[in-house]
Write a structure and sequence with these properties.
Elements lengths: L3 E10 L2 E11 L4 E5 L6 H8 L7 E6 L2 E2 L4 H5 L2 E4 L11 H11 L5 H11 L12 H13 L5 E5 L7 H16 L3 E6 L2 H7 L2 E6 L2 E7 H7 L1 E7 L13 E7 L2 E7 L3 H9 L4 E4 L4 H7 L11
Parallel strand pairs: 3-8, 3-9, 6-7, 7-8
Antiparallel strand pairs: 1-2, 1-4, 4-5, 9-10, 11-13, 11-14, 12-13
Length: 298
């Protein structure tokens, strides 16, 4: 059974459509990246999936349960971190987590304390005295502590320092290794590339790409630089090589596709030096937002 199944999901606010026939499927045990710039429609999709907003069309299922008609039952399997996490300022961190523990039937204190140690969060301080990063840690602990079958994290690394981000990465990999699932929403490609098996890219409320990270890396651009004797007659470059600049025998370019044809061509032209960078998914991602595409979703 799929952890998340979204099909033809539509949502409008008056005359403004913010989700256009969104389709999304997340399998059990996957860490799935939901990628797009702020305002692309990620949060609206997540809130509709959780039954916090009612869709105007289509359906959203969590482990086969309808997000709107069976919302409380569906949400019982979910740990959720919203992008704008908020707590009662007059509670301590400990009181906050104990409240969540009680609301979920209890029995999660050991895991709560393990996560508190892992994220190095002081619990006996009023939430109003927490920094933004501390509140984010508190939000992560409440989402993880009951070991949900599905984690839905909306921009979870906001305000986290690098060491805490690495702790989060390790925790999410453990979640996936246990056969549980993660929907990881972000506008930062590098963290999605590092962590996720598959990614959906959203723009203006539409899914414009849904593919495995490994497949996208094969499509990604490699930056190439090589030097040949300027007196040498060089045969035409293969079609995958886009020349960016040439001067005094030094050529800079961009290569898309499998690298073997490029290597064969370079071997035949007698290069004196060559540099081929790893695939750059950032260029591929930016290409999805080029040509003056305007983001209109929330």
């Amino acid at each position: 059974m799929l952890a998340i199944e979204i099909s033809d999901l539509c949502k409008s606010y008056g005359s403004r459509t913010v989700l256009h026939n969104v389709d999304l499927a997340v399998r059990s045990g996957a860490i799935f990246g939901f990628l797009g710039p702020n305002g692309a429609g990620k949060t609206t999709t997540i809130r509709t999936l959780l039954g916090l907003l009612r869709a105007d069309g289509g359906r959203a299922l969590i482990f086969g349960r309808d997000a709107w008609r069976e919302g409380p039952t569906a949400r019982a399997s979910v740990g959720y971190l919203p992008g704008d996490v908020r707590f009662y300022d007059w509670f301590t961190g400990r009181t906050t987590l104990e409240m969540y523990n009680a609301s979920r039937g209890g029995g999660h204190r050991d895991e709560m304390l393990r996560l508190q140690r892992a994220f190095d969060l002081e619990l006996d301080k009023k939430v109003r005295r927490y920094s933004r990063g501390m509140k984010q840690k508190l939000g992560l602990i409440q989402a993880l502590m009951h070991r949900p079958r599905l984690l839905i994290l909306d921009e979870p690394t906001t305000a986290l320092d690098p060491l805490v981000r690495e702790t989060l990465v390790q925790e999410l990999r453990t979640v996936a290794a246990d056969g549980r699932s993660v929907l990881f929403s972000s506008h930062t490609l590098s963290e999605v590339e590092e962590l996720c098996d598959e990614v959906a890219i959203v723009r203006a409320g539409r899914i414009i790409e849904n593919e495995k990270i490994a497949v996208l890396q094969q499509r990604a651009v490699r930056h190439v630089e090589f030097i040949v004797d300027p007196r040498r007659v060089v045969p035409p470059a293969p079609s995958g090589l886009r020349i960016l600049s040439q001067a005094d025998g030094r050529t800079r370019g961009a290569w898309a596709g499998p690298v073997q044809p490029l290597l064969s061509w370079l071997a035949g032209i007698g290069v004196q030096d060559v540099s081929i960078a790893p695939p750059d998914l950032e260029d591929l991602f930016l290409a999805y937002y080029s040509n003056n595409n305007q983001v209109s979703a929330a």
